[in-house]
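Forwarding these from the shared drive since the link keeps breaking.
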Amino acid sequence: MAGATWAADKPRWLRIETTVLRIIAVVALAAQVVALVTVIHQIVGGAARPSGPTLLTSGLNVWTSTVLAFAVLF
């Protein structure tokens, strides 16, 4: 962001900033898909059954991170 603010070539830095933020958002969303699959696997039938608060916390973390990633993306 500092590069886009102080640079003489603003369009170039804005493209770089947009690209970097999109890459970060895509990586975050991919991590959320993995986390969601893990939570579903635990619910359906893992070896050790997690407790209700553990699943609720995991679901809340996945939801919050997904909302933040989409906020960065859009």
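-- next protein --
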Amino acid sequence: MKVKCVICERIDTLQDENPLAKKLRNRPIHTYLCDECNDRIATKTKENRDPETYRLHHLLNKEADF
């Protein structure tokens, strides 16, 4: 099965027995990310969710006194 990365538009080939290929075939709403894009997004997400810099904005708004 040929798949295209939604970010970099690189075309890859997946085996038909691969669980990801089955998921993409049965549920077209799921999108494919190549390994490079997936790793890049994962590292950026981990950096953003670093406990030292991560703040929950909805909790900060509840402290406001009206």
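The first helix runs from residue 19 to 26. The mean pLDDT is 82.

- D.
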